[in-house]
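Regression test case RT-17, inverse folding.

Input:
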């Protein structure tokens, strides 16, 4: 803890790199939606994130600073107003050039389409390992940074799984402050998943893609993507669902 505090103090004492500022303005679409106060917090958060993780390229990819900045910025958006939480359960980020094939892997490993729970020789774009690394396709991560309104973002998705894992169970329930909050969370997400299932059976559309119904963990991760990328659509579709996510993340992206 002392070493982390000293490292962060050194980081705060240095100016934010001008080339990173230009990179975020150019290639991180969500940057334009943030207030200057939010941007200032994100500048520090992404620098902490980069410094406190081991980064490794796979499949011939050489990890570059640009990759670290854009991935760290997206992941840090999740906990921008949650200083009480951090990604202490993420020590390693592995990057592939694009999609890759997952070999036999232990459960639980989580992801989203075409990411999968587990399997052998299955094409995936990202995975979050319980008590293990986050693995990402750089191509998908860069695309997610560039487009902030399509409701799909592999970085948000996989790091939402890591938030889910903070409780020790992978069940779609992140760390909540009280039993009352946990009960409301469970009831709200259960009602929303039933509503989504009925809408799909009726051939109706909605902001959440069908993969959300895979299990509660995937419902949380998919909804997190949509909460940050299509917040107005999510709020209009289910105001209660939007509200519990806004309370947990302590953000109101619809106002942006």
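Golden output:
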């Amino acid at each position: 803890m002392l070493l982390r505090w000293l490292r962060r103090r050194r980081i705060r004492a240095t100016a934010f790199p001008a080339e990173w500022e230009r990179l975020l303005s150019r290639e991180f679409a969500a940057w334009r939606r943030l207030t200057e106060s939010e941007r200032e917090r994100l500048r520090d958060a992404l620098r902490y994130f980069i410094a406190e993780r081991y980064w490794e390229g796979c499949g011939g990819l050489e990890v570059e600073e640009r990759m670290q900045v854009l991935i760290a910025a997206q992941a840090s958006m999740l906990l921008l107003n949650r200083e009480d939480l951090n990604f202490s359960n993420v020590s390693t980020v592995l990057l592939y050039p694009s999609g890759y094939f997952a070999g036999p892997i232990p459960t639980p490993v989580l992801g989203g389409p075409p990411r999968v729970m587990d399997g052998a020789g299955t094409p995936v774009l990202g995975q979050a390992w319980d008590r293990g690394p986050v693995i990402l396709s750089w191509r998908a991560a860069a695309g997610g940074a560039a487009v902030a309104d399509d409701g799909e973002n592999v970085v948000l998705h996989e790091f939402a799984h890591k938030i889910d894992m903070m409780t020790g169970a992978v069940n779609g329930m992140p760390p909540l402050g009280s039993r009352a909050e946990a009960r409301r969370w469970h009831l709200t997400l259960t009602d929303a998943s039933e509503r989504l299932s009925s809408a799909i059976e009726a051939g109706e559309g909605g902001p959440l893609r069908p993969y959300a119904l895979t299990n509660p963990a995937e419902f949380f991760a998919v909804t997190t993507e949509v909460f940050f990328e299509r917040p107005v659509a999510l709020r209009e579709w289910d105001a209660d669902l939007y509200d519990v996510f806004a309370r947990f993340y302590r953000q109101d992206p619809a106002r942006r």
